[in-house]
Amino acid sequence: MGVKAYDLTGRTAFVTGAAAGIGRACAVLLAEAGATVHGADRDAKGLQETAALIKDRGGTAHTHHLDVTDRARLRRAVDSCERLHIMAAVAGIMHSSPVLETREEDLDRVLAVNFKGVLHACQEAARLMLAHHTRGSIITMASGAVDTGAPGLLCYGVAKAAVVQLTKTLASEVGAHGIRVNAV
Fold it and tell me: How far apart, in whole angstroms, are the C-alpha atoms of residue 88 and residue 110?
């Protein structure tokens, strides 16, 4: 059965954090299912490697070298899709420090990437899907860090908790329009 059981032929997917890790795996899997994949990441080399993997396997890939904290560039990249069926907002960073040693700039950077970057990706995807009356899917990345405090993971856990709340709220707002919003 495999990935072909989920035929995404004719669909367009956008994946943030597509240069490596979970983002790369998502981009490749979506392409293997038949979607045209737009990958975005600030790591240009890794992004090109992901696109090459997709193309070597017969898929279609477009790359967008950007940082998800740059909302204007993210908007232009999402708009280049014309129609969008799937958004996988995967981009994220880790930071570890004890609460008493967490600096404001550390918290700001993690929130900017792990929450605001996801928020902007979700907003741009939903905006485009609603404008074209597209039934689609928006996927965010949560973490077990939202359920259990772990030493050193304050910034990460707070950002992921915000992503979970964003996902629930957006799902309640766009679900009636045929747009599913889920956290993994």
Answer: 18
- In terms of pTM, does the model score above 0.90? yes
**pLDDT at position 2, please?**
63
Confidence bin at 146 (pLDDT 50/70/90): confident
Rounded-to-integer distance, Cα 140 and Cα 177, Å: 18
- Whether 156 sits among the annotated catalytic residues: the reply is yes
Which residues are CB-contacts of 85 (< 8 A; sequence separation ≥ 6)? 8, 11, 12, 13, 35, 129, 134, 135, 136, 137
Distance between CA atoms of residues 63 and 70, nearest Å: 16
Candidate list 19, 89, 137, 156, residue with the active-site label:
156
In order of 26, 35, 36, 141, 178, the CA distances from 23 in angstroms are 5, 15, 15, 10, 24
Say if domain 7-183 classifies as CATH 3.40.50.720: yes
Domain ranges of the chain: 7-183
Alpha-carbon span 119 to 45, nearest angstrom: 25
From 8, 37, 132, 118, select the one nearest 82 (Cα to Cα): 132
Q: How far apart (Å, rounded) are the C-alpha atoms in residues 27 and 45?
A: 15
What is the model's pLDDT at position 150? Answer: 87
Going by their DSSP bridges, the two strands 36-41 and 60-65 should be labelled as parallel
CB 23 within 8 A of CB 16: yes
